[in-house]
Input
Amino acid sequence: MEQPFCCPVCGAALTRQGGALQCPARHSFDLAARGYAHLLPSGRMHTKAPGDNREMVAARRAFLDGGFYEPFLQKLSQLVLEQTAGVPQPRVLDAGCGEGYYTAGVARALRQAGRDACVAGYDISKFAVRAAAGRDKQVFWAVAGSFAIPVADGTVHCLMNVFSPMVETEFARVLAPGGVLLYAVPGPRHLYGLKEVLYDSPYENPVSDVAYKGFSLERRVPVRGCITVRGEQIGQLFQMTPYYWKTPRDGAQRLAARTELTTEIGFDFLVYRRL
Output
């Protein structure tokens, strides 16, 4: 299937020319050995290596491969299958795909259902995309950002966003009219057991049905569970959360002393329709 990305410089279609993607204006982007493209121009990089670093990506991958968030992947795959059921050759895009756990899982579910789908994922972290590209060779991967998505207008039928920035203007631009945005947000008590260790006064996550221009919110799909992590899994979980950056030292020390942690988990999948 034809790759879905376009030139990040001029917006023209990209075709493969040997070991690179090239547009008619001869803007060229090398393909890495693992097959992904770097479509984030240097002028849009605020640091030399934006996004998650190598250690954070490794921690996230190890934790997710442990199967702790499998219920979320199953529900997301079900929603993608439902929302693209009437599209002969759906294009599915994962915005901020990280190390590819959800992207590859959804691609696998679509293939198992016999769907002829084009699945792509991008992330601003080159370390994340490098790891993602090793998960599934049939998915199209790219280093890119959500504030200037290298995808043509109206060409995506289903856009997934799992805990990545919400950029409504760009998401609305790339989605076809009637296309769907599946936006995963933390449920009110997601990782509450972790926060009970980290903070003196743990708090529930706020719940709100936010209206975004160009979209209508159709429903909220909650997924709830409970997990127990042990040993190095505790640190892996901590490192893949925003709390890793804002937890007081004494809270981090309390967590480091734990050998086992039980916590509630919960995602809400918000189903938005592109108007």
